[in-house]
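Reagents: none. Just compute today. GntR family transcriptional regulator.
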Amino acid sequence: MSVAAESAYNLIRSKILDGSFEAGKRLKEGELSRECEVSRTPVREALRRLAADGLVDITPNAGAVVTKWSQSEVFELYTLRHHLESLAASWAAERRTEEQLDRLKKLADAHSRLVKQGGGPDYEAKNSKLNHEFHHLIIEAAGSRALSAAVSHVIEAPLMFRNFSRYDHARMVRSASDHQHIVAAIADRDGELAGSIMKAHILAGLRTIVEDASS
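Predicted 3D structure written out:
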């Protein structure tokens, strides 16, 4: 992938994951080209990669749209995710390096500080970014290429639904607290506890989405 396409991919992807580009939004090449400050060719390349990630649907002669998921599909994704990420947390506790542990602590602390502030400019985008980096770092720390490949298509789509406007302050506090407890278990090399907390953490996210959809 070219440098221009990589840049476009990262920008479009971040906007999908932080909710700026909502599910069902049509992604017009001309508009994306101007926003990403690249030509249309790298935008097309970025969109194809995003389609491979499961974040974009491309239909011939109709263009690209941000993927929409049904309630049952979201449930299936979260079911897969809690199995895979709880395993990742368990392995991370056994295999993490000190440098990875330090990065996890810094991300969890930054998340806790942000939640304590309770708002401010770009609050949701910052929350989404910290959450995304935290979960991906745990997968990295698990030290398994096979697990990383299996998780890649399962983790991204659920993160689209973690638009933190769905979360009241109490839920955000619990989410940040979960991250701290997961880090503590990984620091203690307690794989069973790390996996258990991660499973509960992800299922709590699913409950938030289900409750939001039914309200």
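Residues 7 and 144 are 27 Å apart (CA to CA).
Action item: order primers for follow-up constructs.
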